[in-house]
Design goal:
Elements (H helix, E strand, L loop, with lengths): L2 H15 L13 H8 L12 E5 L5 H8 L3 E5 L3 H15 L11 H12 L1
Amino acid sequence: MDNINKTNRERWNALANANVEYSQPFLDFTPEQAAAYIFRYGIIKDVAGKKVLCLASGGGQDSVAFGLLGAQVTVMDLSDIHQNKLNAVARQLNERPRKTLGYYSPAEKFAECVASIG
């Protein structure tokens, strides 16, 4: 890793450890709040079923909102602290029941699909 990347990672890790506002995921978002957040500028429309890549995701505000709106979200962040937080957010969201899945969680539906294969 070159010095610029190393310095950036160290700085973002320090900010993540300090729990600055933009390093906190929106775990209490409802789908309605997620829609208001993502669609606030009128540029992005329906994201359900779309693949979304969130780079330099910080606390994961965008990734949580996109996921609640039905997008398939991949998240990457330079800060390993942020990435660990984002991985924990993904686990938490995958255990949350969804209306679109008949009030099952994505993890439960995935397990059901795997079990049905044999």
